[in-house]
Design a protein that fits this description.
about 120 residues, alpha+beta, three-stranded antiparallel beta sheet, 4 helices, about 20% strand
Length: about 120
């Protein structure tokens, strides 16, 4: 069989059709599978209580964490909100401020919450 433009186009169409058929068959096989469970993460208020004593999140800082800093903003790719948290000592918390103001939306949050006094005292 000679290699012609029509033959190459037909081969490409056939390959595209076979690929679509494979994808459809795989989707049919997977439709009965259960969805994976989303990992459960404790609420911000519960994090300090469930994780126990903490150190400051900043590099080379060994001070006990006194505050939990939370910022919720839109991801750079636009796939939804992202929640970033960091446990910080008093000195580093004073330096904190909203960092992602370009990515604000209706649900934007910047909050600083004190960690429980017992967690800070047990680390001293």
């Amino acid at each position: 069989m000679a290699d012609t433009k029509r033959g190459r186009e037909e081969q490409a169409r056939n390959e595209a059709r076979r690929q679509r058929e494979r994808e459809i068959e795989q989707a049919r096989q997977r439709r009965d599978e259960a969805e994976p469970d989303a990992p459960s993460e404790p609420a911000v208020e519960d994090r300090a209580q469930t994780t126990g004593p903490r150190r400051c999140h900043r590099r080379d800082c060994e001070e006990p964490a006194a505050f939990l800093v939370l910022e919720r903003y839109l991801e750079d790719t636009g796939h939804g909100p992202v929640e970033a948290t960091a446990a910080l000592c008093r000195e580093h918390t004073a330096e904190e401020g909203p960092a992602r103001l370009d990515d604000v939306f209706a649900g934007y949050v910047f909050r600083i919450e004190p960690l429980s006094e017992t967690a800070s005292e047990t680390e001293s």
